[in-house]
């Protein structure tokens, strides 16, 4: 098992290249299954989840010639319909995103039911609701979701009770092959949803309103060969912004887009961090003291749940107290006991954490539990005095491309240890 040995207390300074967004790339790779025509994606991050999704596409018979740099072409002409294997679904929940495309293209799809994971129960009822509204018959059978629409899907009005990124993506992908028009109400507004729409439009789909609460899709798409560049990863950018802030450093994040990070920039500024756009991306700098501020994670454009853990690490060394509320997932505080091992003073009550800032953290062995919890421990370790060992880092490699190398180039002391 690999571990990271981090010697903290070093100010970060330099440039970090931000990759394409993992959470935009995953649904776009799934969307390749809709069409018989090749799809080329540019700016694809080289991270574990993307490698798993590419393997899954190959399992279905898609041909993926050697990746060249950050671009990949998926040729789905020979795709055959078979069950998504439990082993892949277990490793990565985003596998559920192949359900809509396969059902829409073949009239039948079977995907192992994703298990619960460390951040909450994460049901798939809204995905099922959307496909059922389009005429699919869905049953849960021997641990799998079995969806059938032998006569094809038909356009529908889908009203989500609460916005879901994944269910909006499932509905949108299925709708491009359904007969007639689909209207999605209370759609998720995340940039990754809008980027999936842009990719589908490049493939020939007709979609309006992605990025707003109401999305309109005309079905019966005539697909064409397509090429699409994935948006930069706002969660990766936010993570490095917090790395600059927590070490009192100065980082330029090339490729990052401020417009995708408004709520995060606002929170960082309120906490005493400077953040401004440059020709190449974003600059983040902190010279003064950090102040404790209150945040709540919310659907976009609110503060992202995928940066809540990292922000908590920052608040743990701020002056004063900070109240952090998690409103998206019911159990996304697995990092709290581990941050406490580094000396943070955090009290949990339900979905709220009260963080009382301490003058400094001290290195200790900690255990990573999920992707963002893992990186929050790396950030805390960068600020801590002495050595921290972050164990079980395979979670990190699911979502961050060469995290340790990028940090080392900016002055961090990190070594990857193998057992
Ligand atoms: C691969 C990917 O893009 N992952 C992101 C995606 O996850 P994901 O698409 O799984 O997240 P959702 O937006 O669907 O989840 C939002 C909330 O809706 C609930 N829900 C969701 C679906 C459903 O059928 N029923 C239901 O109750 C979830 O449990 C959660 O409480 O958006 C999350 C919220 O921004 C991010 O944290 C994840 O990093
Ligand atoms: C929770 C995340 O991913 P997933 O939805 O694939 O678990 C994430 O990217 O932070």
Automatic annotation (TrEMBL):
Positions of post-translational 2-(S-cysteinyl)pyruvic acid O-phosphothioketal modification: 117
Sequence ranges assigned to domain Enolpyruvate transferase in this UniProt record: 7-407
The reaction(s) this protein catalyses: phosphoenolpyruvate + UDP-N-acetyl-alpha-D-glucosamine = UDP-N-acetyl-3-O-(1-carboxyvinyl)-alpha-D-glucosamine + phosphate
Residues involved in phosphoenolpyruvate binding: 22-23
Binding residue positions for UDP-N-acetyl-alpha-D-glucosamine: 93, 122-126, 306, 328
GO biological process terms, semicolon-separated: cell division; cell wall organization; peptidoglycan biosynthetic process; regulation of cell shape; UDP-N-acetylgalactosamine biosynthetic process
A cellular component annotation (GO) from this entry: cytoplasm
Catalytic class of the enzyme: transferase
Keywords: Cell cycle, Cell division, Cell shape, Cell wall biogenesis/degradation, Cytoplasm, Peptidoglycan synthesis, Pyruvate, Transferase
Subcellular location: Cytoplasm
GO molecular function terms noted in the UniProt entry: UDP-N-acetylglucosamine 1-carboxyvinyltransferase activity
EC number in record: 2.5.1.7
Pathway where it operates: Cell wall biogenesis; peptidoglycan biosynthesis
Catalytic site: 117 (proton donor)
Principal subcellular localisation of the protein: cytoplasm
Pfam families: EPSP_synthase
Entries under HAMAP family matching the protein: MurA (MF_00111)
NCBIfam families registered for this protein in UniProt: murA (TIGR01072), PRK09369.1 (NF006873)
Its biological purpose: Cell wall formation. Adds enolpyruvyl to UDP-N-acetylglucosamine.
Stored PANTHER family: UDP-N-ACETYLGLUCOSAMINE 1-CARBOXYVINYLTRANSFERASE
Official protein name in the record: UDP-N-acetylglucosamine 1-carboxyvinyltransferase
Species per Swiss-Prot/TrEMBL record: Alsobacter metallidurans
Gene: murA
């Amino acid at each position: 098992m690999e571990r990271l040995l981090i010697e903290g207390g070093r100010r970060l300074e330099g440039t970090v290249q931000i990759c394409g967004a993992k959470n935009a790339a995953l649904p776009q790779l799934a969307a390749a299954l809709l069409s018989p025509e090749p799809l080329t994606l540019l700016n694809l991050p080289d991270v574990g989840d993307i490698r798993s999704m590419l393997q899954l596409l190959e399992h279905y018979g898609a041909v993926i010639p050697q990746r060249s740099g950050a671009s990949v072409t998926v040729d789905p002409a020979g795709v055959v319909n078979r069950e998504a294997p439990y082993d892949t679904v277990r490793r990565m929940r985003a596998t559920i995103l192949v359900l809509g495309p396969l059902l829409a293209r073949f009239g039948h799809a079977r995907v192992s039911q994703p298990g619960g994971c460390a951040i909450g129960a994460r049901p798939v009822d809204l995905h099922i609701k959307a496909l059922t509204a389009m005429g699919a018959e869905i049953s849960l059978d021997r641990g799998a979701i079995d969806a059938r629409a032998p006569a094809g899907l038909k356009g529908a009005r889908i009203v989500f009770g609460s916005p879901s990124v994944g269910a909006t993506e499932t509905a949108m992908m299925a709708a491009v092959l359904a007969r007639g028009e689909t209207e999605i109400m209370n759609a998720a507004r995340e940039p990754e949803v809008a980027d999936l729409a842009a990719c589908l439009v490049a493939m020939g789909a007709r979609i309006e309103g992605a990025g707003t609460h109401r999305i309109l899709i005309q079905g019966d798409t005539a697909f064409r060969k397509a090429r699409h560049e994935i948006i930069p990863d706002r969660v990766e950018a936010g993570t490095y912004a917090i790395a600059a802030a927590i070490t009192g450093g100065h980082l330029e994040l090339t490729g990052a887009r401020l417009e995708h990070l408004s709520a995060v920039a606002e929170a960082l500024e309120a906490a005493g961090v400077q953040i401004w756009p440059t020709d190449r991306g974003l600059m983040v700098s902190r010279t003064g003291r950090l102040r404790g501020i209150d945040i709540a994670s919310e659907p976009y454009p609110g503060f992202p749940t995928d940066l809540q853990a990292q922000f908590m690490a920052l608040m743990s060394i701020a002056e004063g107290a900070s109240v952090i509320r998690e409103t998206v997932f019911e159990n996304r505080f697995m990092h709290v006991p581990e941050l406490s091992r580094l000396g943070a003073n955090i009290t949990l009550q339900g979905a709220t954490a009260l963080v009382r800032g301490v003058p400094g953290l001290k290195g200790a062995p900690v255990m990573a539990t999920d992707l963002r919890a893992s990186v929050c421990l790396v950030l805390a370790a960068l600020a801590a005095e002495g050595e921290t060992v972050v164990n079980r880092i395979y979670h990190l490699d699911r979502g961050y491309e060469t995290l340790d190398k990028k940090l080392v180039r900016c002055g961090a002391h990190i070594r990857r240890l193998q057992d």
